[in-house]
Amino acid sequence: MKRILHISDLHFGRLIPEVVTALKHKIAELDPELVIISGDLTQRAKTSEFIEASNFLDALPTPYLIVPGNHDLSTYRVHERFLYPWKKWQRFIAEDLEPTTETATYKVIGINTARRVGNSMDWSRGRINAQQIKRINAFFESASPQQIKILVSHHPFWLPTGHEHRGLVSGSEQAFENFQNNGPDIILSGHVHLDYCHVYGGIIVSHAGTTTSDRLLPGFPNSFNMLEGNPNNILISRYHWSNGNFAYLTKQSFIKQDDGWFEQ
Asked: Strand pairing partners for 246?
């Protein structure tokens, strides 16, 4: 697999202009074959934000796969949220809310975990349902041994210590149970604005922070991740914003064994 860049939570409407400019230069420099964007493209789902985001996507020098996040649903325009929640997304960004793509070396499926109404008072939290799980397994069923299987969602399937209060995507336990036979090798997500990589249930869970916005957590600068490797060894490099540019921070290596993935 050639390079795949994973960026997330761009939040057009809350951008840091110099970070956006540097990201464009870094994408051109690293020359990935695919850019994956795991949701929250906008801050308030305004038409102006979607237009700005669309212009950014059109200028990318490489193919991309994108899924929506909870911020891409209107928060205050209630009629829009309930009657036509994805009208602007489908007009300006992509018709397909759950896109797929594949090459000889990878097979990628995105799912929409954002919901108009949540199971709790916090409607920013997401959900994966049985139908989506079934579709994911069916999609990966045809994967060849030479393809890395990648699932993209906005909401997290695992959270590190100290951040559990943000809440996992509802239905994650059922998803992991069903993924054991024919699930993804790696899940790429965002939402919580911090970057990390971890193995859970034999599956690599990799999160990117907010790549371009000023909605930063203390100690977690703007960031993105880069994937390389093959079906038996995946390398994930993490890049952090530092001194006016995105700089390489660290790399984690994961190897696949009979009972799943392990960090090397």
From this structure: 241
How many angstroms separate the CA atoms of 87 and 78, rounded? 14
State pLDDT tens for residues 72-127. Answer: 999 888 889 989 999 999 999 999 999 999 999 999 999 999 998 866 656 788 99
Inter-residue contact 239 to 249 (CB < 8 Å):
yes
- The DSSP code for 127 is B
Residue among 41, 65, 42, 30 nearest 226 (CA): 30
CB atoms within 10 A of CB 120: 9
Q: Tokens at residue 39, please?
A: 């949701």
Q: pLDDT for 148-179, tens place per residue?
A: 999 999 999 999 998 988 889 999 999 999 99
Q: Give the whole-angstrom CA distance, residue 205 versus residue 184.
A: 10
Nearest to 124 by CA among 43, 182, 50, 201: 43
CA distance 20 to 123: 28
Residue 36's beta-bridge partner residues? 6, 65
Please report, as a single letter, which amino acid is at residue 16: I
To 10 degrees, the CA torsion angle through 99, 103, 107, 110?
-20
- How many Cα atoms within 13 Å fall on the side-chain side of residue 32? 24
Q: Is the dihedral of CA 222, 107, 203, 134 positive or negative?
A: positive
CA dist., res. 187 & res. 205, Å (int): 5
Cα 81 to Cα 87: distance, rounded to the nearest angstrom: 10
